[in-house]
């Protein structure tokens, strides 16, 4: 293909959701191409922790996106295909808070109730009664959602989105993006740009497995390449230029270890909720199996290399496990897999919307695990920007790149 109305760089959860929504709304009226360098999705298939859905957020945008995801998941077969089964199990999501974070939890719950979230505040005694295997001596409060929260199969979701994209006429190409071509637009006047010097991207250059290079001209390009988005942005001079191109796209890969816990003393049923501890430790049952999965949500300023070390497990994760669940033997906890997410190192919140210089480049990256959880709503939002020129369902304007220009971080105060 030499031309497409929209080129999407990245065929993961967000990229395929964008393709799905563009073709669902516009049909044959829009030609859409997805460029994805790994169509085996080997990394995503092993990302066990992606498949959980919660509404425990402080930002209204995240609450609305979770609510829409729950609706999309409940009607997954009507939305995608009658054979798609993501095994969505609404078993809830329990957030724990010690004295230090109890007030923030209460504030978050108040915000959530304003936006229609159904949840319940629990005392330490309430939590102990429901889940006697949890140590609650240092817990002040907990909050559990009473609907639309739980676990699902993320790999089944991605396969369903990808199949539907094919069915609707989206072209998917196995390719690695290696550059952009730009065209001079002398009649464009932009603050900070010398008159007559504006150059806008209009083609994406990619390489196939046989090392052949090709280019596609586009009207709009969506950058949804996950943890590689920051590097691809540099190919469009974002972070390498002057003025509006001086600020880089601050998205980098961040790796986390996921652990398996085999402990018969943790008595849990299929209805046991996902649990987010006040320390950043999370725990969830591994589907219908008898073991549990756990990991740790680090701070955005944690050293990336530190997260995979034995010292990080020994000093951060293991003490939290011992305190909260008191497992008996060290060999009951085993490293299962290392997962990789796209991290926005500026404020740890996703970046969504047109770039201020390249207005035909829409960024949709840096959402971390929420890129999977919120893919239905994010993809719908990008399609609205392209087709309608504005958000018409959920206003996601605050996720835009402009907050980097004015240095106004958008911080989500709840861990997930």
Automatic annotation (TrEMBL):
One of its GO terms (cellular component) is mitochondrion. Residues 5-385 form the FAD dependent oxidoreductase domain. Keywords: Oxidoreductase. It comes from the Eukaryota. GO terms for molecular function: oxidoreductase activity. The keyword Oxidoreductase applies. InterPro entries: FAD-dep_OxRdtase. It holds the Pfam family DAO. One of its GO terms (biological process) is mitochondrial respiratory chain complex I assembly. Required for the assembly of the mitochondrial membrane respiratory chain NADH dehydrogenase (Complex I). Involved in mid-late stages of complex I assembly. This is FAD-dependent oxidoreductase domain-containing protein 1. The lineage of its organism: Eukaryota, Metazoa, Ecdysozoa, Arthropoda, Hexapoda.
């Amino acid at each position: 293909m030499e031309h497409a109305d929209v080129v999407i760089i990245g065929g993961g959860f967000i990229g395929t959701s964008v393709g799905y929504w563009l073709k669902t709304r516009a049909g044959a009226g829009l030609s859409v191409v997805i460029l994805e360098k790994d169509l085996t999705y080997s990394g995503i298939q092993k990302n066990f922790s992606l498949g959980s859905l919660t509404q425990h957020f402080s930002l209204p945008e995240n609450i609305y996106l979770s609510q829409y995801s729950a609706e999309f998941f409940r009607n997954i077969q009507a939305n995608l295909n009658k054979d798609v089964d993501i095994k969505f199990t609404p078993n809830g999501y329990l957030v724990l808070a010690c004295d230090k974070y109890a007030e923030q939890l209460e504030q978050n719950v108040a915000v959530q109730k304003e936006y229609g979230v159904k949840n319940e505040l629990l005392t330490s005694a309430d939590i102990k009664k429901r889940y006697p295997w949890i140590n609650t001596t240092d817990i002040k409060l907990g909050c559990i959602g009473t609907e639309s929260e739980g676990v699902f199969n993320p790999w089944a979701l991605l396969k369903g989105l990808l199949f539907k994209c094919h069915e609707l006429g989206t072209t998917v190409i196995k390719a690695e993006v290696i550059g952009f071509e730009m065209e001079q637009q002398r009649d464009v006047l932009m603050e900070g740009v010398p008159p007559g010097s504006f150059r806008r991207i209009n083609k994406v250059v990619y390489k196939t497995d046989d090392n052949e290079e090709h280019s596609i001209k586009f009207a709009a390009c969506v950058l949804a390449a996950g943890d590689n988005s920051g590097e691809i942005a540099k190919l469009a001079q974002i972070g390498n230029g002057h003025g509006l191109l001086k600020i880089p796209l601050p998205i980098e890969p961040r790796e986390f270890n996921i652990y398996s816990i085999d402990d018969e003393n943790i008595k849990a049923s299929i209805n046991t909720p996902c649990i987010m501890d006040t320390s950043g430790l999370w725990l969830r049952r591994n589907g219908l199996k008898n073991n549990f999965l756990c990991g740790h949500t680090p701070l955005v300023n944690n050293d990336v290399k530190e997260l995979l070390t034995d010292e990080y497990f020994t000093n951060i994760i293991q003490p939290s496990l011992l305190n909260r669940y008191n497992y008996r033997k060290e060999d009951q906890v085993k490293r299962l897999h290392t997962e990789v997410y796209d991290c926005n190192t500026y404020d740890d919140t996703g970046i969504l919307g047109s770039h201020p210089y390249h207005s035909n480049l829409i960024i949709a990256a840096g959402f971390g695990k929420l890129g999977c959880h919120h893919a239905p709503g994010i993809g719908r939002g990008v399609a609205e920007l392209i087709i309608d020129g504005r958000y018409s369902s959920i206003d996601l304007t605050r996720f835009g790149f402009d907050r980097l220009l004015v240095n106004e971080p958008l911080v989500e105060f709840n861990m997930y």
